[in-house]
Amino acid sequence: MASNTSEINASAVDKDDLKIPLIDFGPFFTGTPSDKHAVALAITDAFKTSGFVYLKAHGIPPSVVSGVFASSARFFARPQSEKDSLGWTTPQSNRGYVAIGREKLMTVDETNGADTLRASAPDIKETMELGREGVEGLPNRWPDHLDDEGKDFKETMQSFFEMGKTLHKHIMQAIALGMNLPEHFFDESVNIGDNNLRLLHYPPVSKEVFKNNPNQVRAGEHSDYGSITLLFQDKHGGLQVRSPKGTFVDATPIADTIVVNAGDLLARWSNDTIKSTRHRVIQPPAPEGSENDDSDYPARYSIAYFCQPNNDQLIEALPGTFGEEVQVDKKYSAITSGDYLVQRLTATY
Ligand SMILES: O=C(O)CCC(=O)C(=O)O
Ligand SMILES: [Fe+2]
């Protein structure tokens, strides 16, 4: 048990009071009930302190993940006109291709000045947004009519979408146990799969761009909107998390792990006992000795699977997070998951 506990608590990031553990999710599926509980508590504890955790043995095979990265890279390599023909339309749909400069991620307090911010330092990224299949009037913008590669893309992403849905359920089961709720407490709240799979491509950028504009980033500081985000990074790095001291700390990629972070809706659901922590993406850290190298920063690819409770799920303070026993009132009024998401998306596009 002792070795098991220390493995659960391995540290991935520990800087400026920001501690992000690396947790082996395996024992949650295969361990004894007490192993399972220990994993659940460790994950919940991480969400309550930093809002972030690295997970290994999460159940999505590395070969599947590399297949999704490859398919994503082939998609972004298509001619701009093809990608534009699959363009994102509305926050209600939130499906389709988003060209560089269209979305500006920002913090909640910045949304009043969204247009100025977008103009001065647009995010240097393009994305492809994929949603649940079969929603009346909101089709995914698949490239399957273009060629065989487009058909492969559709199949790969549909299958990955389902895996993300399952992992969402499992992590919510861990959170339920960690919050002293029944293991299956959230199952019915996340069984529809109203999630959003976002493929991201940060193209190569000249070092001058970052030198000349101190506000330039690849993706602006923000918190995520939903319950949790499953983030798959390539090896380049550039993701940073806001520490309690206010600094940005690198969340360096670790092979065969994913970064999972809590979103605003889970923070709200937990009456702010769980934290939705701000993060951003900048240029990758320069390898040592490369200070005078003036070649471009390399491209970076990532996959963000935004998990969202079912659209019609009412989000209000969970049992145990308010009331006399804990001496805290409910901090927020009830809102459905779907209404909340559309509100947030409307501000950033
Ligand atoms: O690309 C990344 O590593 C993070 C992207 C992100 O935070 C987001 O799209 O919400
Ligand atoms: Fe994010």
TrEMBL record:
Q: Which organism is it from?
A: Penicillium coprophilum
Keywords associated with the record: Iron, Metal-binding, Oxidoreductase
Start and end of every Fe2OG dioxygenase domain? 193-309
Which family does the record assign? Belongs to the iron/ascorbate-dependent oxidoreductase family.
Transmembrane domains' residue ranges: none
Asked if Iron is a keyword of the record, the answer is: yes
Can you name one GO molecular function term for this protein? oxidoreductase activity
By what name is this protein known?
A: Fe2OG dioxygenase domain-containing protein
Give the domain of life. Eukaryota
| Gene3D superfamilies per UniProt | B-lactam Antibiotic, Isopenicillin N Synthase, Chain
UniProt-listed Pfam families: 2OG-FeII_Oxy (PF03171), DIOX_N (PF14226)
- BP terms from Gene Ontology: small molecule biosynthetic process
